[in-house]
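Hey forum,

I'm writing up a methods section and want to include a predicted complex as supplementary material. The small molecule is zinc ion. I've pasted the protein sequence and the SMILES. Can someone with a working setup run it? I'll credit the forum in the acknowledgements.
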Amino acid sequence: MPEAKLIERLAAVYAGEDIRYPHLKVVTLAQWLLESGRGTSDLAKLHYNFGGLKYRPEMAPYASKVRYEAHDGVDNYCGFATLEGFIAGYWAFIGRAPYTGWESNVDTPERFIRFIGPVYTPSTGYAEAVIKLMPEAQALLSAASDAGAAEATPTSPVKDLGTLILDPGHGGTTKVGGSSPNNAISVSGVKEKKLALDFCLILRDLLIAQAAAAKQTIKVVLTRTTDVNVGIAARAAFASTHKAKALVVIHFNGSTNAAASGAETFFAAASNGNTNLADDKAFATAVHAGLLKGLRAVNPATKDRGVKPDDQTGPGALGVLRDTALGNTNRPKKCVACYIEAEFITNRTVDKLLVSGPDAIANRTAVLADVAKAIRGHMAGLP
Ligand SMILES: [Zn+2]
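Reply by user p_vandermeer:
Happy to help. Structure tokens for the complex are below, copy them as they are.
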């Protein structure tokens, strides 16, 4: 179920993050387990705030201000756009004046939490309660190494949907194999690469939960689970390595025209050597219909920019959809593939609804539930 998976998702992202004191990951994750009720608090589910972090003006570069009612009344809390954003925000929060001196107390995880604990939550036994959760946090971090792949295996399956590859666009800080590190940046300052990863992680967990409930088996593999870049051909190669039935690439659009909006989905054109054109088009059409349905449920005015063949050549072409890269030219069972430009994050309304507003994470989940249904529906009919 998505709730149960959220803390695993956070652990997987954290395991892949570069932080200044890596040996403090275990104690900070333990602290977040405690603060968020293992990722089940509304603050965690709706705002990716696993630390109970109240909003402070210094947090503006990391978080938006959200009203939230906790056990001690209504207050302003930090709302984060992505799990990576929360991790960066937590360390920025600790970097503020009340915690001055913490960097002289980092030689062991225990010493760190005994130093910051009394400032963070001045109740007795707080640090010891966090320390008690460290083995659980360590287990989550260790399990995270294979977090790019997840499977639904219900006890009495009626249908195997096969393997799906999800490809979050961009990543990292340098260009790799034709893949740029980032393209669009949202009105609120969130990078497309971060949002694409979050969408793929949510989509994966929804697919697993939906399939399990429908007694279907499915395996979902991500081409990346952290902020690293992967070359275009290497992303497509996941399809042949995993003998996948389908690949879905997720990107967001950006434009200097702030009014630009809408969703569009691409498949490889015949002119780009597509050997399973009709199958790709049918898959792209089904996924796009799910995407549009979901987007219109949160914003009825969502513009349909259509399902389109990618007939570009040169650097603008969507190379990840090429049959040569997907391994389709020497496989009897071909992988269908489509490329979503989910929305324009440079549009203020879209930013509020999907990126930075108080309902952004709930809206994402609602949109992606429809995308997951569409993908499963189509994969069920694939040979
Ligand atoms: Zn992109």
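Some notes you might quote in the supplement: Strands lie at 64-70, 73-79, 149-152, 159-168, 216-222, 246-253, 263-268, 304-310, 336-344. Residues 169-170, 183, 192, 251 surround zinc ion (CB under 6 Å).
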